[in-house]
Automatic annotation (TrEMBL):
Any Pfam family: Rrf2
SUPFAM superfamilies in UniProt: Winged helix' DNA-binding domain
Species annotation: Rhodanobacter aciditrophus
Protein name: Rrf2 family transcriptional regulator
InterPro entries the record matches: Tscrpt_reg_Rrf2 (IPR000944), WH-like_DNA-bd_sf (IPR036388), WH_DNA-bd_sf (IPR036390)
Amino acid sequence: MRKDSRLSRVLHVLIHLDAFEHPVTSDTLAKMLGTNPVVVRRTMALLREQGYVKSIKGHSGGWSLAKALGDITLLDIHQTLSDSSVFTIGLTDEHTECPIEHAVNRTLKEAMDEAEGVLLKRFGEVPLSELTVEFKAALAKR
């Protein structure tokens, strides 16, 4: 099953942006992520709409943070990237009249909703600045 790594990748980008002293181009970010600059621009545009990053045009332009990482949570970024469930497990709807399907779907949905609630609550408690602690410690050792 294919994993959706957008959240992880965007968090990676935001932490890098915090470390850079100048704006970073979409091309540079794309090379870092191993993806196309168009994908980077689309994703960064979503973050810009929410006020987390800003873009600067021109020769020395690029992307930079518009908010401090301490003012952005994991939940903020997750919600910016997707309004769908964090789980990719799907419920079946092939036998809508079957009582077994109803029981299975109800039980799975209840469990996934509960687990997702716990996860999203935790996401809301983690500012992105918390993610930089390990990174900054590793830089200090160099």
